[in-house]
Amino acid sequence: MRARLVAIAAGAIVVLTGCGGAGSDPELVSSPTPALGGGFGGIPSAGTYAPDQVATDPASGLRIAIARVESVPSLAGTVTVLHFRFENPGRDPIVPRGWTAPVLTYGPSDMPAAHVVSVSEGYGAEVPGTLAPGATQELEHAYRVTRAELTSARVSAGTVTWDGDFTR
Description:
The structure is a single chain. The protein is mainly beta and 168 residues long. The chain contains 1 helix and 11 strands; from the N terminus they run H-E-E-E-E-E-E-E-E-E-E-E. The N and C termini lie far apart (65 Å). The model is unreliable at 1-42 (pLDDT under 50).
C-alpha cells in the first residue's frame, strides 16, 4: 500500500512541476499548425493572392494583408513572424468571428511549418473586440521556419491563400 501511495505522489509531483527544463515560459506552446478553417466575420473572397496583395471581403469591405515578414529571436528559438494587418475601410463596425491561425506551408512538398503560440511575446493572439470603421489591427503569427526557406510558400486562412516568395 505504501509503495502505491509513493508512486501516486511521485506521479503528482511530475505532473505539477512538469518534465521540461527550468526557465521555460509556461505560456509558450509550440504545436503543429491547425487545420484549415474559420475566417474573420465575412472572410475575403476565396482565391489566391501574391504575398503583397490585399484580400478584400466584398460583403463587409474587410481588408487583410500580410504587412511584414521577419525572422526574430523568440523563446522558441528563431522564428519567422507574419504580421497580418486587418483594416475596416467601411462605415460599420466588423465583429471578428472565427479567425484561426493561418496555415503556413513551404517548399516543393508543401511542408507545414509549426505554429508557435506565445502569449508573453504576443504570437498567435485572436483579433480582439470589434474592428471600428476606419480602424486597423495587426496580429502576429510565428512559425518555426527560417525566412530564407519561404521562397516558395503558401499562407492559408480559411478559403484565402497568399502564394509566392515571402523573402522579398
